[in-house]
User: Fold these one by one.
Assistant:
Number 1:
Amino acid sequence: MIRAMRTAASGMLAQQMQVDALANNISNANTTGFKREALSFRSLLYRTYRHAGGANGQSQSNPTGLQIGSGVEVSSSHRLHVQGDLELTGRELDISISGNGYFALQMPNGELRYTRDGSFRSDANGAVVSVDGFLLTPPLTIQPGVTEITVDQVGIVTGRTADGGTTQLGEVRLFTFPNDAGLEARGSNLYVETPSSGPAVARQPGDPGTGLLRQGFLERSNVQVVEELIALISAQRNYEVNSRTIRVGDEMLQQISNLIN
């Protein structure tokens, strides 16, 4: 009974972490560029009472073994980098990615971080920055007097000058990784590369394996609230069943205690 209670407790802990992950997904259902997170589970160690294929007392081998597991644990979490819906905003510096790739932002310490959030602004110097003021990389500056900013699908940025002509302001580059799932989230819609993700590779939008840009759109979260709620209900039921197992084990221990007394 003690083993059953500990096994059930591991299941309750795993389901609690599942609920935590689902709650984070649901709370970010309207976060621009957010990618939902999923947990993976694995069984804990098994106690073997009889080996499959081992000899029995009749000089025959056991066709099956006898093993009892000791529960479950969360083995890892991974983000599902699936395309979210594109929402029309009409703002000149709202840029979404249709396909693979990330924007790069330069932190104050010079470190690069990556995002799917294309909500950009221009600062007092005309530099294009994120909503938190981090510089877009490669740098892009809107010169004084330039209006009607246009960003085409392959990242060429142009604007209209005061004399009615057009001028190229720069280019928007995307960055891809050998393993997107290996990126580490740091909050504020930002990711950092890790040894698992591999190094960032700068690409022009539209290159093979790289998405295209859509000006005036933002990528919505890829969280499907209905699916998350169904998973939440399932996790709740699993939690309840494991708690019931603990109660059953406690009742059995009480019966044994009554027999002894």
Number 2:
Amino acid sequence: MTRILQDPAKRAGLIYLIMTILVFVGSLRLIIIPGETITPLLILLGRIGIIVELIHIMLFLLLAWALYVLFSPVNRNLALIVLLSISVSVAIQALNSLNWFAAFSLLTSADYMQVFDTDQILALATFYLELHMDTTYIVEFFWFLWLFAAGLLIYKSGILPKYLGLLLVIGGFGYLFVLFVFFMFPSFMAISVVGAVPAVGG
């Protein structure tokens, strides 16, 4: 483990692997849906999910640092773009987690929310959940930036196989395509799966 932490490439890879695992664990919070019966188990899963999401955000920031250390000897300017774009996306994601937590608080029926009827609470919760999802599309622009820059660095440096760099660049443009469809043609979001596949792969 000590050798892995001392090697910049392995350190970045380890952080990315842990982040990938946490994505699936954090998705537990999405089980809670407006209009469904909220059980104590769902509430527990929701709380675990939000904590895992915050840990994932923190690790994303550490990944930015690890990638900067790894790639700054190759091209400091591109490495700085990776660092800054991830940092901005982390800030947006951290604030965006409040939208999901607001929906969660509404659905778990805090006492002071009793002044609203059920339909009003469900409408507010749905609004915050949709706002949480929509804000993710803004984050994806900065994901495009860091994936594109990191892909170029990998391709030029030879630290990792060049095909990984190409995959990151393609994944970055996949996020950009999804973002473009969302803002310009929201009624045709189904076609964004064309860009979502390479984006997720990146």
Number 3:
Amino acid sequence: MIQIKEVTSKKMLREFVKYPNRLYKDNKYFVPDLLSDDLKTLSKDSNPAFEFCEASYFLAYKENEIVGRIGALINHKSNEKWNEKNVRFTHFDFIDDLEVSKALLDTVEKWASDRKYESVMGPLGLTDMDHQGLLVEGFDELDMFITLYNYPYYKDHLISNGYEKEVDWVEYQIKMPTEPNKLIERIAERAAKRQNVRLLNFRNKKHILPWAKQIFTLYNEAFAPLFGTTELTQAQIDYYINAFFGFVNPDFIKVVVNEHDEVVAFAITMPSLSKAMQKAKGKLFPFGFIPLLKAIKGNEILDLYLIAVRPDLQGKGINTIMMDSLLKTALKYKIKYAETGPELETNSDIQNLWKHFDTRQHRRRRIFKKELNGG
């Protein structure tokens, strides 16, 4: 018999965030989250997203052993923006047992119905800055630090419980050239002159911080039309500045400004932390920070976290300015591959960025949705 218990204490929340490390203990493609970051994300006391979100978390037990977990949440800003009455499920992990997955999903659906909501959708986070999207292709690829990994059976369990595809994201691995790309360099130079913009050069992290708020303000503007996005509040911007810029390598942050020193484009990238996080096993201390520090200085894989161009300048070569600089940085650090974050399968604008490169689409993620009766 499966028993579902709501998370009601800090001890249970720690069990909730630690569960995947046990489920994926021997999986060489799974990359653990930093446990401290996950606790902050899910804690109402520390995450400013709870100014407009509410959530409950649940653990599944079988013979007194944890065999699954799930979160139920409502992003009120998202529902208002997209005119929905939708509950999101999040942090959904479980053993390959249909009784377990059904008990967890039934719990979220009842949670939604009790609140008169009409549908359940996920996996999604509190906001689009969180991990989201069920892996449906690419199970034998090392995961990114910023994305979810899951076993292939997850998809079958969702379908068995009445969930259907809502939207897909795709991800690409890009082979980095071994010499400068003169064509991209020429296009970048012409675009900079024509649009009267320039690329900033950062000597250290302190030089990035004065531009950080403008970067996330542009994020709000550029990402606004995309699926599931909501505008970051000032409190969230401050939160993510600490999260993103506390340990970056400034060589991998690209920012383009106009003649008025307004940020018109940015690329937040970082040498891959995946293998380092596997070594750290989700903990910075006592020794987990050592492989992370080594990874930040550089390795053969570059993760492309966030790339944005101001909407009125999209399609005018601004992205080429950042791409040219990233290629030169990749050559400097002897990077062999770049990994994109999830991109909506319909977002041809972002996918056109890679048309000059040798690429392979190696992962796909999906949001599943179920309409509830009597919502």
Number 4:
Amino acid sequence: MKRSVWLLIAFFLLPWSLSAAARDDAKNSYLKKANQELQEWNTKVDKLQKRAEKAGARTRVELDQALKTVRENLAVFRQKVTEVQGSGENGWNTLGRRADDAFKDVKHAYWKAASFLEKDKHKEKP
């Protein structure tokens, strides 16, 4: 009798524990990817900053402001990733979506900043 009770308990708890492990794996995978994205985009912004230093004066003013926006968006993304990291197993999905939205803002601001360099490059051509 005791054995059947334990089997019944294991039957109901095992799927729950497996799903918790799967959620932890998904969260850890998400955090690993997000941290890699942070590193890559910090590098991209640093490279863009170096290219900006060679730009014309007018472009440089616009680009400095655009890069400031990119860095602010990166800080928001970093904060959202930190929130995901500190979240429980049930709430991290919602926080992850918010972090994804912040990441989209980073990419949009970056490409907007990069477009200032493209405009400057075209101005230099005769």
